[in-house]
Amino acid sequence: MDGQTVLVIEHQHANHDAWFRAVESRDSRFDGWVIVGVTSTGIYCRPSCPTPVRPQRRNMRFFNTPASAQLAGFRACKRCLPDAAPGSPEWNRRDDLVGRAIRAIDDGLVDRAGVDGLASHLGVSSRHLTRVLSSELGATPIALARARRARAARVLIETTSLRFADVAFAAGFDSIRQFNDTIKEVLASSPSELRHRAATRRQPAQSDHAGAAVVPLRLAFRAPYRHDQVMGWLSAHAVPAIETAAGNRYARSMRLPGGPGVVELELLESHVEATFRLTSLSDLQTAVHRCRRMLDLDADPGVVEEVLRTDPFLAPVVAEHPGTRSPADADGSDAVLRAVIHQQVSVASAVGVLARLVAAHGEPVSDALGRPGGSSGQPAITTVFPGPEVWAELDPAELGLPLRRAHTVVAVARAVASGAIDLSPGADRSHTRAALLGIKGVGPWTAAIASLRGLSDPDVFVPGDLALRRAAEALGMPATPLELEGVSGRWQPWRSYAMHHLWQTYRPRSATPSSKRLSGRIEQSDRKQAS
């Protein structure tokens, strides 16, 4: 084991006593925040691992990520499956080089473009990127991507009947030998052993009769989770043909590197049941990562609400709505274009306009991919939201929008398509918002909503939002934009969640609230801000 690596990682955790207490009490709230390596067994676990024997304190080592534990020589526990824990929300909160790199790696950028491609995307040299990640995490970009591939391979081994050669390719390995060696080293089992154990737990699936790659998965989250709030938001914004939402089920199409994909999600009390239908299995982990961001599954409501509860105005609202999330869009470029079209109109009106534009310019998906909606009694998914390259080539005069807004849509699309505006998971959020504000027709409200929904920024605040000001006023807060901006400083770095809590105060008290009406209020902004 590399003792130097362990020392580097342990130095990042200022309070070891908290981690020790978490392990001793099997506190699941720390799962995903920290990885526990046990030197006497060579295994790494979640803090809540149900093993009957607790490790001795002197044998515990703590890591930021599974990759750093693997690099230090530890193997994943077969009992608690630490790789399946919700991810650390730390990487979404941070907008520094490390946070941006982790988000980009999780989205599959290293597998698609290599470490040099990742470094170029982040605007640094590969040497500097490797040095920074190694110093702070004890793991190089290659090691982090390797851990991601091992996780993807495990999912495919246990949930599909694919040949192992196909699994290796789909997970991003360069060879069967590399695949076998990594699985044995990281998971302490051969691929055959993993599949044999999984066969006793669930029925494997590979593809449907039409040839689409189909993978069922369970997505974990930290309780509590506001299913009704998330589904209300998704339902209000659902655009026909690319999204369906009813009850606790949501389905949508996605643009993925290997081709279109469709995911069907069922939000349950303890987890999310997901079924991915993909053109290419190599897109599985990218699709999973985007769904986790979309549903905000890696958030830690305990940490967020601990901050928000200190505000006397917000405390009653937070107590009434524990587990509130900040939903996002599956694709950043989709989010910004939708935000521009939503300017100064209700959500219902914007959804109608988007449905018309998607029908005219969207990419059709195959029947095999679009089946989830129809199979659950909802309209089938037939189309993928047009990419920025498509919008960039359209004639503003033919969009059927107010001409100024149509020009803004096309200008934003051209900036995104050319790379002048980065809306990928690894984007520098402050740079993206500044670049958006430099486009005529994009105001603070639009740029903020694009960051909220497109980049999953946990600290967005839009003091000019009309519904937000009315909600604040009803709670006795200062309601002018300037005063409200000052008050919001108390909620950092979780102001996005504060906004969702405030917006919820407008939810009708009837048993069957109208999410369309609610969201129409939510996204009405000050016209001066939007223009």
Structure description:
Mean pLDDT is 84; it is low at 1-14 and 507-531. Helix 12 (227-237) packs across helix 26. The protein folds into 3 domains: 3-85, DNA Methylphosphotriester Repair Domain; 91-159 and 161-199, Arc Repressor Mutant, subunit A, CATH 1.10.10.60; 215-530, Endonuclease III, domain 1, CATH 1.10.340. It contains 27 helices and 11 strands. The strands form 3 sheets. The protein has a 5-stranded antiparallel β-sheet with strand order 5-9-8-7-6, with helices on both faces. A 4-stranded mixed β-sheet has the order 3-1-2-4. Strands 10-11 form a two-stranded antiparallel ribbon. The chain has helices at residues 3-12, 16-24, 66-71, 90-93, 97-106, 109-122, 126-137, 141-159, 164-171, 176-187, 191-199, 227-237, 284-295, 301-308, 315-320, 332-342, 347-361, 367-375, 388-392, 403-418, 429-437, 444-454, 466-474, 481-488, 495-504, 515-522, 527-530; strands at residues 35-38, 43-45, 60-63, 75-76, 213-219, 243-246, 249-256, 259-267, 272-278, 363-364, 383-384.
Beta strand %? 5-15%
What's the number of domains?
A: 3
So what's the CATH class of the largest domain? Mainly Alpha
Distance between the termini: 58 Å
Helix content: 40-55%
Write the CATH fold name of the largest domain: Endonuclease III, domain 1
Strand order of the largest sheet: 5-9-8-7-6
Total beta strand runs: 11
CATH superfamily of the largest domain: Hypothetical protein, domain 2
Name the overall outline. globular
- Average pLDDT taken over every residue: 84
**Count of helical segments?**
27
Report the structural category: alpha+beta
Q: Spans of 5+ residues with little confidence (pLDDT < 50)? A: 1-14, 507-531
CATH architecture of the largest domain: Orthogonal Bundle
**Largest β-sheet summary:** 5 strands, antiparallel
Radius of gyration: 23 Å
